[in-house]
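Quality-control log, excerpt.
Job 1 of 2 completed; input and output follow.
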Amino acid sequence: MKAKLLLIPLIMLATACSEENEDLTEWMQTTQKNAKSHLKPPTPPEMAEPAQYNPPAPINPHAFSVYRMRSAQPQINSGTPPDLRRPKQLLETVSLDKLKFVGTIGSGNHLSALINSADDNLVYTVNVGNYLGQNYGRIIKITPDAVTLSETVEDTNGNWEKRQVVMPLGETIPAQPQIKK
């Protein structure tokens, strides 16, 4: 009986010495050996032929060109420039994106617009003929829904052009306003 009792701990000791997860490791090794890849070998790239460039006849930078002459000369000044000697009104120093049309006062044909300035957070009363914004914008029409301005702006050639800008009720005009020509 004592021999049997000594045999049980020896068997347990022998099984405890075997590597942990030995069957899992053996399965992984056999699976890796049997696995085959299904990749195709890469094909070599095709050589592209370079495109032929045939430049036009050499250009002489000092030669006479009608096109250069046209672009160098400013066009005849069109449009009437604004009166720069006129004293500026208070809201001409504020850009249009900081002005907001908030309402009207008056009745019938004579409406005055209420303009809120974001610079000083005050509400100003303006009429047709007053100026707004930094582009010489003159108020040409006031309705309960919008104020219409006629701006005079200078283009890259020094020509003055007129454009209409509409300030809708309750909205500020973005830095690039919707322009009606």
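Job 2 of 2 completed; input and output follow.
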Amino acid sequence: MIGKPEEGRTFTSVAAEFGMNKSVVSRAWKAFQTTGTAVRKVSGGLPRTTSAEDDRYIILQAKRGRQQSASAIAQQLCTAMGLQLSWFTVARRLHKGGLFTSRPERCLPLKVGHRLQWCREHKNWTTDQWSRMLFTNESRLSARSDSQRVLIWREFETRFYPSNIKERHRNGGPGVLVWGGIMLNGRTELHVFDRGSVTGDRYCEEVLLPHVRLFRGAIGPDLIFMDNNTRPHQIQAVVELLESEDITRMVRPAYSPDLNPIQHVWYALERRIAAYLHPPENIQQLKQMLIQEWALLPQEMLRQLVLSMGRRRETELRRKNDVKDGTNPLLNGMLISGQHQKRKLLMNMHAI
């Protein structure tokens, strides 16, 4: 580049040839005439306080204890290597290494041993076997769900205008407890409980007898019934009723919502209710909307959730470590109850 102006060419033509501003060419030419070289001098300032080895040590300490503060890591570096660093310097090194502070995602206290045992017992299950499984569960659904996937159109800098604010009750507002079941090629009716706690007797009278027993009669003796481990489901009356009706029961491991795919059907149902322009004004309207939207859920979505059981089982067998240590790249997004993973799941459901 320096040789071009010596040939009598203008700074503009040289800059156009090299794709840069002509002021860059001008400064380089002036520097060459003054110093005899166009190479930039090493800038001043304090020398770097850490070496590449120190930087790797800082990043390693942060990965070993992800809840440590930058000040704590700086203290460890001082103790181990005698190097005095400020927390700000440590934070800069971590940022350069690709580590940034963020809130940890939340997950249930999973019983890893029980989960692994359950997955090993069903390691060789085929699609035909999963197709005979009736996945059931209860869930409390609110009239005003706090769904973060409900979007609005608004102008710039009008975030806090009354028309752009969605009121939200602290606990979701009035709600109802519902029960439902899904299979590969079907579903039960959605049952909405009246007020009051669901005891074992109510579970028998309102769920097992009118719904599960009839489903068992329609499907046949190959039906496998899955519910959760709540105390009302484990009383003697429930056990005796299932035995008398010849209903095979499979109990999933404790604290394992991802091993029952119907949990994600509730997310989809909540999203459908939240998408209404006019939310339900009372419990009766909420019940009607839930029953209507339950019937409108696409069967293909339910089918894909049931078919995903094989993939979740394989992921669990490969993982083998507690999901909270964050060291395994095979972490299944369905285990996390953070809003980002839940939103991603709902987007996939909506695309079906």
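Post-run check on job 2. The chain has a mean pLDDT of 79.
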